[in-house]
Write a structure and sequence with these properties.
The structure is a single chain. The chain is mainly alpha-helical. Helix 1 packs antiparallel against helix 8, helix 19 packs antiparallel against helix 20 and helix 22 runs antiparallel to helix 25. Helix content is 77%, strand content 0%.
Length: 765
């Protein structure tokens, strides 16, 4: 059997096979550059549908992970280049060579795909046949594309009647679709290997947990727990990689919640099990331990459910829609009336609104909602009902009378009910966030937890009952607050985080009480005290997480977060950043967006080149390597920003990252200058010439980031990314040159040592 580590290496090799081919094509002529083509025969859309990687959906192949998508993108880019060439373009030698180079590169990349695919197939017999069939299809399609682009002597070939890309565009499109489809199949099959690794790792963890549950001696427990710890670390790595790889933000949030449970419960499992072994006849200790094991098993099952995308026993997600989500959908429905008066029935709209208003009862029925908030929510709910009736009345008239006045009245009715619902949203948000803030402030000093710890050490059962009751009340308050926050969270991932917080308070509150009971019954037990401390820390940690969640919900509500593309809207000005104060929203047009995306792609390819150069160095702790790696990592974040992904969310984040990038570039030049002092004059001069190209670029980038361009955000982003790309191109050259000169220096030093030793020996003779 091949180890998980080895199989993950294969998977990495697979992804590198594609990125390398695209990197070598970065210098193809501008006339051949990839650009989105129209759908239908002759355009890029004919290859992969209406959008990037749409072909996979056409073939019934759903791409769920970023790694598969990123592996395919270079291949899609190359094939798009071939498909989008103009038939009437002057067939110069340069153009023909470029076409042939792209075709050959595609074929070479496919060859590497196939080799890695076959290696994966040989390691996984259950998938071997499927992978091999897809590999054969990919190989054939790659060879067909190479043959159709073999056009160096076009005039001679056309006279011989040979079929080429110029004479058989449909053939190229057909081969391209087959190639992309078959490569996608292999990637998805290889992805199943990764899923299998996660399932295998989960099964190992479960098996060891069963042994831990049954263990009776402390010595045996220590040995098994050591094994369990190693297995949990492996599972954490595998599931963490998968979480980061998922495209679906909702699934990522669910995975994060399940992994958070496993992380916190691992320490709880240790202390709860030790307490049971120390006090085997204590019922509360056993109850405490069973609660931890049960919760970990549920979390492990949840991870597998997300990874395999299937629920046990065909269950469905029965969680109700939040109020904010319901309002959003309702508003979309009424706004659709502007385009189509027969879009839906009046009854459906009435039922939808009633469902939303019924859910506001979670707020109005809550004992913790103030009288003022309750009255205002009821008032706005009544107003929304009345305005819907008015809208329906105008709607019926508009269906029979197509007059301008009726159309204007309909528009006014739509705006009125939208305004009422927005006011209701504000009131619900104010109610929930104010309640949560007050509750967090009230319980910030954790008085009840401290009292429970003291009660346990004193062995005071009466006081235990009193403070256990107080903690239960606090738990109910927090659970209900989380339920209200979910309604106003604004995004699905944060809804899931609210549900996770609610479940955590519910479970942990009861576990603290059972742990405190165990300590009260055994007040001198150090392990029982340690166990209670661990559960109390988990509670305090969740309180802290809830505070962070509250800030994030307010950020989304106030529009400070949640944009898909950070560069499409400007950030709020920072207190200490005067040059951003005058910036206002500046949404780039499609041409500008395309330009940014193209610059980003080139930057992404340069980071791959830099990483390849860095991997050559034997000494990975070398300062030049470290600064180069830091710059490459930051440049990759900038590339992700141009795609609307990664850690940089706004233009403000981008500018800060660029400032750090420029500073790192200057540190690199200092390290290279120090290295140049070890070289001979000719080599030193050559290296200093390259450094002198990079230093001014660093200073120019620093200047651009500090320059205010009023409302021209796109222009600023464009300039910054262009400078960054130039710096990365120089970084690649510098890393390559430094590596060669270092090897040369080492060889000369070794030769000198060898000659010195020989002279020494001759002298002795």
């Amino acid at each position: 059997r091949v180890s998980c580590r080895h199989r993950r290496g294969r998977w990495t090799d697979w992804r590198r096979a594609s990125s390398g081919a695209e990197s070598r094509l970065r210098d193809r002529p501008r006339a051949m550059a990839a650009s989105p083509g129209p759908s239908g025969v002759g355009g890029a859309g004919a290859v992969y549908g209406s959008g990037p990687l749409g072909f996979a959906l056409d073939s019934g192949l759903e791409i769920k992970t970023r790694s598969v998508e990123q592996t395919l993108l270079p291949l899609v880019s190359q094939i798009t280049t071939l498909i989008n060439h103009k038939d009437n373009t002057k067939k110069s030698d340069k153009t023909l060579q470029a076409i042939q180079r792209v075709g050959q590169a595609v074929n070479l990349a496919v060859g590497r795909f196939v080799k890695v695919g076959e290696a994966i197939a040989n390691e996984n017999w259950d998938l071997k046949e499927e992978i091999n069939i897809a590999c054969i299809e990919a190989k054939q399609a790659g060879e067909t594309i190479a043959a159709l682009t073999d056009i160096t002597n076009l005039n001679h070939l056309e006279s011989d009647g040979q079929i080429t890309i110029f004479t058989d565009k449909t053939g190229v499109i057909k081969a391209a679709r087959l190639l992309l489809s078959s490569v996608t199949k292999v990637l998805l099959l290889a992805d199943r290997v990764v899923i299998k690794q996660i399932i295998t790792s989960r099964n190992k963890v479960l098996a060891t947990m069963e042994r831990l549950e049954k263990v009776n001696s402390f010595q045996e427990f220590v040995q098994i727990f050591s094994q369990f710890g190693n297995e949990m670390v492996e599972f954490a790595h595998l599931s963490g990689d998968r979480q980061n790889d998922l495209k679906d933000e909702k699934k990522k949030a669910k995975m994060a919640a399940a992994r958070a449970v496993l992380e916190k419960c691992t320490m709880m499992l240790l202390t709860a099990s030790k307490t049971c072994l120390r006090h085997p006849n204590c019922e509360s200790a056993h109850k405490n331990k069973e609660g931890v094991f049960d919760r970990m098993k549920v979390a492990l099952d949840k991870v597998i459910e997300i990874v395999t995308d299937c629920k046990p026993n065909g269950e469905t997600d029965i969680s109700s829609v939040s109020i904010f989500t319901g309002i959003k959908e309702f508003k979309m429905n009424i706004e659709a009336l502007r385009e189509n008066l027969y879009f839906q029935s009046k009854e459906n709209l009435s039922v939808t609104l009633e469902v939303i208003l019924e859910r506001t009862e979670d707020f109005t029925d809550s004992a913790y909602t103030s009288h003022e908030h309750r009255e205002r929510i009821l008032e706005l709910s009544t107003q929304a009902r009345m305005e819907l009736q008015q809208l329906i009345s105008v709607w019926i008239q508009a269906q029979s009378k197509k007059t301008k006045s009726i159309a204007e009245e309909l528009e006014l009715s739509i705006l009125k009910i939208s305004h009422s619902l927005n006011e209701l949203k504000k009131e619900l948000h104010s109610t929930a966030t104010q309640l949560a803030a007050d509750l967090l402030k009230y319980h910030a000093d954790h008085v009840v937890l401290k009292a429970l710890k003291l009660t346990g050490v004193e062995g005071n059962l009466e006081a235990l009952a009193e403070y256990a009751c107080k903690l239960s009340e606090q738990k109910e308050q927090l659970v209900e607050t989380c339920r209200l926050l979910r309604h106003i969270s604004g995004t699905e991932p944060m809804e899931i985080t609210c549900i996770h917080a609610e479940e955590t308070f519910q479970v942990t509150g009861q576990q603290i009480i059972s742990a405190a009971e165990t300590l009260t019954l055994h007040p001198s037990s150090k392990i029982a005290k340690e166990n209670l401390d661990v559960f109390c820390e988990a509670w305090e940690s969740q309180i802290s997480d809830m505070s962070t969640l509250l800030r994030e919900i307010s950020d989304v509500f106030e529009g400070r977060r949640g944009e898909k593309y950070g560069y499409l809207s400007l950030p709020k000005p920072m207190k200490n950043n005067a040059n951003l104060k005058s910036l206002k929203p500046d949404k780039p047009d499609s041409e500008e967006q395309a330009k940014i995306a193209k610059l980003g792609l080139k930057l992404g390819l340069l980071t791959s080149d830099a990483d390849c150069e860095i991997e050559k160095w034997e000494d990975q702790e070398n300062e030049i390597v470290q600064y180069g790696r830091n710059m490459s990592t930051m440049a990759y974040s900038l590339y992700l920003f141009t795609r609307g992904e990664g850690p940089l969310k706004t233009s403000q984040d981008l500018i800060h990252q660029l400032e750090v990038f420029a500073a790192e570039g200057l540190k690199l030049t200092s390290s290279v200058q120090a290295f140049s002092k070890q070289l001979k004059d000719d080599d030193k001069l050559m290296l200093l010439l390259e450094i002198n190209k990079l230093i001014p670029l660093c200073h120019q980038l620093q200047t651009v980031t500090k320059t205010s361009l009023q409302n021209k955000v796109f222009l600023k982003v464009d300039k910054c990314i262009t400078k960054t790309r130039s710096m990365m191109a120089l970084l690649v050259q510098l890393l390559s040159l430094c590596y060669k000169l270092l090897k040369k220096l080492q060889m000369e030093n070794n030769r000198w040592v060898s000659v010195t030793n020989k002279d020494s020996m001759d002298g002795k003779i």
